[in-house]
Amino acid sequence: MMTVPDLHRYKREQKKVIVVTAYDALFARIVEQAGLEVILVGDSLGIVVQGKANTLSVTMDDMLYHTRLVAGAAQKSLIIGDMPFMSYQAGKDEAVRNAGRFLQAGAHAVKLEGGAVMVDRIQAMTQVGIPVIGHLGMTPQSVNQYGGYKVQGKEGDRAQVLLDDSKAIEEAGAVAVVLEAIPAKLARAITAQLSIPTIGIGAGLHCDGQVLVLYDLLGMFDEFVPKFVKPYAHLKADALQALRRYKEEVEQGKFPSDAESYH
Ligand code: KIV
Q1: What is the rounded distance in angstroms from the CA atom of residue 210 to the CA atom of residue 93?
Q2: Do 187 and 251 reside in the same domain of the chain?
Q3: Interval between CA 79 and ligand 1 midpoint (Å)
Q4: Which of 47, 82, 88, 186 has the fewest C-beta atoms under 10 angstroms from its C-beta?
Q5: H-assigned helices in the chain
Q6: Which of 50, 79, 180 has most ligand 1 atoms within 8 Å of its beta carbon, as the pocket-test mutant?
Q7: Which of helix, strand or coil describes residue 182?
Q8: Containing domain of residue 17, as a range?
Q9: What is the tens place of the pLDDT at every residue in 10-20?
Q10: d(Cα 60, Cα 113) in Å, to the nearest integer?
Q11: CA of 41 to the centre of ligand 1 (A)
Q12: Are residues 220 and 253 in the same domain?
């Protein structure tokens, strides 16, 4: 069973923290069978499951539903619940209450986006026993501010803000931080200055761990494929081929055959 303290141990022992998203019981089991130990129930489900253009419309109810599905099936993974837009931005008290609901749904930690501005929320959650994972760089819930999904921290002053933000959230009690779509050199500097693990997505090789969206990794979602995605399989192509063959065989009277019929 992977636990929150193991994240620190992995950093000390220079062991990679390998994270993937999952949104349902079937994939939670497959992820565990593959030997992965950390599952993020990401609000990316707004895009890959719900078919929206961004994550902003995802609700607490959506997230809790999927967290329950994953937590009900996973047996040994560290499960991280991703706090959706407007579940923590408005204030500390609401943020703590919503974070608590994730733990009641079976998550072991929550993730939220933002740096120094989130310090009071991270402290408040940590004080009541809710482990928090930060998320810096290209934070998808701020997509409207960026004017699209764009690499962050390229300019020196923005890079310094991210360095400062990472230190601030570590000091506030965050147990790890996701670094998304930032230059590899900056991610390396952040990783070197923190004692908590950095988990990169589009942040180069020198992070303490990596995270990918499951459907990107499996080649199931091809509507928007960022540069940092490596498809390790091509399941959309496989699914298309299977469905076309099924249609063809039914049309041609080849399915069901004797083998698929009761006698
Ligand atoms: O929602 C999500 O899946 C995420 C990852 C991309 C880090 O936040």
Answers
A1: 31
A2: no
A3: 13
A4: 47
A5: 4-12, 25-33, 45-48, 60-73, 92-104, 119-127, 143-146, 156-172, 184-193, 214-217, 235-251
A6: 180
A7: coil
A8: 4-232
A9: 999 999 999 99
A10: 15
A11: 8
A12: no
User: For residue range 239-256, what is the model confidence (pLDDT) as tens digits?
Assistant: 999 999 999 999 999 999
Residue type, 213: V
Distance 135 CA to ligand 1 centre (A): 9
Catalytic positions are: 180
Q: Are residues 163 and 210 in the same domain?
A: yes
Task: Give the CA diameter of the chain.
Answer: 74
Amino acid letter, 33 = Q
The Cβ of residue 147 has, within 10 Å, a number of other Cβ atoms equal to: 7
Write out the two tokens for 67: 């967290």
- Label residue 232 exposed, middle or buried (CB < 10 Å: 0-12, 13-18, 19+): exposed
Enter the tokens of residue 71. 């937590």
Q: How many domains does the chain have?
A: 2
So what's the pLDDT on residue 223?
87
Give residue for tokens 């990918």.
212
Helices (H) then strands (E): counts for the chain: 11, 8
